Amino acid sequence: MSDLLLEIGLEEVPAKFMPPALAELKQMAETQLNEQRISYDEVVTYGTPRRIALVVKNIADKQQDLEEEAKGPAVKAAYDAEGNPTKAAMGFARGQGVDVADLYQKEVNGGLYVFATKKAAGVPTSEVLPELLPQLVTGIHFPKPMRWGFTELRYARPIRWIVALHGDKVVPFSLEDITSGNVSRGHRYLGTDNLVIPCAEDYLAVMEKDFVIADQARRQAMILEQIQKLADDVEGTVQIDEDLLEEVLYLVEYPTALMGNFNPSYLMIPEELVITPMKEHQRYFPVLKGHHLLPKFVTVRNGGAEHLEIVQAGNEKVLEARLADAKFFYDEDLKINLADNVEKLKTIVFQEKLGTIYEKMQRVQKGTAVISDLLLLGEDVKERAMRAAFLAKADLVSNVVYEFPELQGIMGYKYAYAQGEHPLTSKAIAEHYMPKNADDEIPLTFEGLVCSMADKMDTIVGCFAAGIEPTGSQDPYALRRQAAGICSMILGRSVLVSLTALIEQAINNYPAEIVGDKDALCKRVYEFFEQRIRNVLNDKGYRYDVIEAVVTCGYDNLTETLLRAEALNKMQATDTFAKVLTAFTRANNLAKKAEGSEVNAEYLVEEVEKQLWNDVQFAETAIANQVQDRLYAEALTVISTLEESISAFFDGVMVMDENENIKNNRLALLVRVSALSNKIADLTKIVQA
User: How does pLDDT run across 630-678, given as a tens digit for each residue?
Assistant: First the structure.
């Protein structure tokens, strides 16, 4: 056995393309090798800006022999009355590559069927690879692939060479005008253009000698080690952003980290305004000492350690220009009162059917006031929140946000605070964008919380009214993420608020000609939230049937929905739950036959049904009080105490009695039993282990 190497040599590929491409290549290779019955030890993928590589460790020299049993038609369809094979049998045999006489019969689930044993001798791997490898190359999908020259092949970037080696033997194949071989290329500036790979096993070592660290895991370790050393030299720490690290990883083939400096005067402007140009525009890592930014940065060069001082000077010069622009824009923005920018929002369209950002601001301000009342916040909080809603989008017309869109909200906060707005109002301006994703924090202030809820619900309702609903992977206004954000905020702060009320207040802020049928719109948006709350509960580790049980009983109050799930989950873990579930399932199945729920004591004949009726009446009162106080665990405990009474009832009476009045009365009693848990969870949705 030997290794298999496939290297696709390319013009520099965008860094964000690499991780998914490598994952897809690995998955494809494993799938196809398994389908081809070719054994191996491990599939590894490597990636740099100029190459996508695959190494299969210890690939077998030959396919495994095939011997598998195939099930065919029923015997009665395979043979006629005289026992001669029919077209069905002959077709099956032909499809399996066997003689019809080799078919045999086996019984399956009481029926008799014909079977065939399909056999095929394995062929050498070297005969399979010339067809398999081109499929791996062309099977990788990229966003916005391109064509080049006169070729029809579409790829991330033009393919310049292909290395295909099985051990030390070239696997021959061609794609367009490119023929596979054993010649690669080293580092664009430090390496050679004709780098011979003697055999697949030597790939990493040969590449490294030519200044290419092909193994991205080793390359990342080198970057981190170098960064750490530079940080230690200045007694600081480097702020490692994982997304930035991944991007830098696929921008270099031979990494060398270096530290640069910038004018300390730039530390007088907001820290975010210094870090953003560093990270987003230059791919630099900020350097901190404690929680304070140092006038230094770390960058990673694609090359060796020669002439680093020249590289450093060049990077410093570029960053200096960026920071000078940032400071200029910031100083200019401070000359204008943030509130004066609000009028300019009339010139920015939010959505064609939904008006301008200014109109959205007005709706969000109204929504903020209503939600503040729904949450029973004080007038001072409400006023600050409404002020924040008024100013929330004002930084969109600032110079800084025009240049650095990533800083919207953050700059609004900075400007508002610098211009004397209340600290909580200022903070809420930044917080109204939170949470931006599933991992983001929720607003810390109630001012930011209600502002964020109002803004997100306004967008969701407006888009639904305009006919812009998420479909499949299409969600241009990130409505799913915004709905999930509302759920996270409600549950994160244990807010007791009606989801329907939140939706209705947003609907009321839109003109009737946009909304149309209010009830229908409210219903659509409400149902849209169902999957979001299911996702939240799933992320919290609840079983699918527990989620189904509580959501089926409603989710208007998300905090209560979570509390109900917690209570049911605890009850499910008890030793008695199985018996309780069995009893209630029996009751529910028969309750479906009932015509009403009125129980007449006159028709309670047996002692067990009288006892059950007494227990049910007590439970109804107790559960109603406990549900009102959100004591769901206690309510479920009361429900569980009825198990003995229910079981005794079924053991002691015939529900479907010949006397129609007695029968209907017993069915009505079971309806009352079944309904006990309806405000907590539908127990029939729980799957018994």
Answer: 999 999 999 998 888 999 988 888 888 888 888 888 899 899 988 888 8
Q: Which of 156, 176, 209 is the last residue of a domain?
A: 209
Structure tokens that stand for 223 in this block: 């970057």
Rounded alpha-carbon distances, angstroms, from residue 636 to 14, 433, 643, 682: 56, 39, 12, 12
Paired strand residues for 260: 297
What is the residue-averaged pLDDT of the chain? 93
Residues 404 and 491 in one domain: yes
Q: What is the reported pLDDT for 357?
A: 96
Q: How many CB atoms lie within 10 A of CB 531?
A: 13
Q: For residues 444 and 431, is the Cβ–Cβ distance under 8 A?
A: yes
Helix axis angle, 660-674 to 577-591, nearest 10°: 130
272 and 324 both lie in a single domain: yes
- Tell whether 556 is covered by a domain: no
**Cα separation, 330 vs 277, whole angstroms:** 13
Domain that holds residue 661: 561-685
Round to whole Å and give the CA distance between 156 and 146.
Answer: 6
Average pLDDT over residues 14-25: 96
509 and 380, same structural domain? Answer: yes
CA-CA distance, 371 to 364, in Å (whole number)?
A: 10
Specify whether 174 is located in the same domain as 318: no
| Burial profile 377-395: b = 16 or more Cβ within 10 angstroms, e = fewer | beeebbebbbbbbbbbbbb
Q: Determine phi and psi for 211, rounding to 5 degrees.
A: 65, 35
Q: 10 Å Cβ neighbour count for 681?
A: 28
Per residue in 174-217, pLDDT (tens digit) is 998 899 999 999 999 999 999 999 999 999 999 999 999 999 99
672 and 565 in a single domain? The answer is yes
Are residues 410 and 311 part of one domain? no
Number of domains comprising the chain: 5
Say whether both 190 and 45 belong to one domain.
yes
| In contact, 435 and 441? CB cutoff 8 Å | yes
Q: Cβ(278)–Cβ(244) under 8 Å?
A: no
180, part of any domain: yes
Q: Are residues 486 and 600 in the same domain?
A: no
Query: What are the residue ranges of helices labelled H in 106-184?
Result: 125-138
Q: What is the mean pLDDT of residues 470-499?
A: 91
pLDDT band at 438 (very low <50, low <70, confident <90, very high): confident
Q: Residue 400 has what pLDDT?
A: 95
Residue 589: pLDDT band (50, 70, 90) is confident
Name the nearest CA neighbour of 339 among 419, 224, 414, 265. 419
Q: Is residue 162 part of a domain?
A: yes
Average confidence (pLDDT) over 313-340: 95
